[in-house]
Amino acid sequence: MIEMHDVWKIYPNGVSALNGINVKIDRGEFVYVVGPSGAGKSTFIKLMYREVKPTKGTIFVNGFNVERLKERKIPLMRRQIGVVFQDFKLLPQLTAAENVAFAMEVIEAPRRKIKQRVKEVMELVGLGDKLNQFPNQLSGGEQQRVAVARALVNHPAVIIADEPTGNLDPETSWDIMQLFSKINDQGTTIVMATHNKEIVNTMKRRVIAVEGGKIVRDERQGAYGYED
């Protein structure tokens, strides 16, 4: 599903965020990316959906050669990737259903298909009764569920999540993680950057630890491995 070969990222200010990364993530895996602040986790994540380009190296995501992708092909690749952020990134003027539908509208899906699929994913994330609520009428956990529904709506092969529980209380964080686990059980690959030590240690998934721009640990049923 995802492969990186000798990937480097050096920003224009000279900061070397990633130094010779090599990694392979198989279809259907659930992978945590952990490490101290400034270790390179966010760059690692952003490279996968072409938010940033590598300085050197090769990246493949679901068959796409990411760093060689022509600009006009980037939207096609991103349709196969769902991205979930820490701060939800919902459009405040749209209802929950409209936020989710927007991801299908931009690829010009038929209106009837949009309506049906939005209802399906909103029910999957437990918000079938909140379709017409605006973001400011929803709790933080509910807003993140809408964000997850939006990430899911186009049947992505992989979901990339960057600190998705960072703004949530512990109980709500667990609810969101159970949702991600359910999505993974249905076959979707999940790659998640997180600082949530308790969740990583309890859920026992693959853990990739990044420090100083390098992968220093890659464990099949790993632990967080850092003190708070």
Automatic annotation (TrEMBL):
Biological process according to GO: cell division
Residue stretches in coiled coil: none
Main localization category: membrane
Protein name listed in UniProt: Cell division ATP-binding protein FtsE
Compartment(s) where it occurs, according to its Swiss-Prot or TrEMBL record: Cell membrane
Organism: Effusibacillus consociatus
Keyword Cell division included in the entry's annotation: yes
NCBIfam families on file: FtsE
Membrane topology designation: Peripheral membrane protein
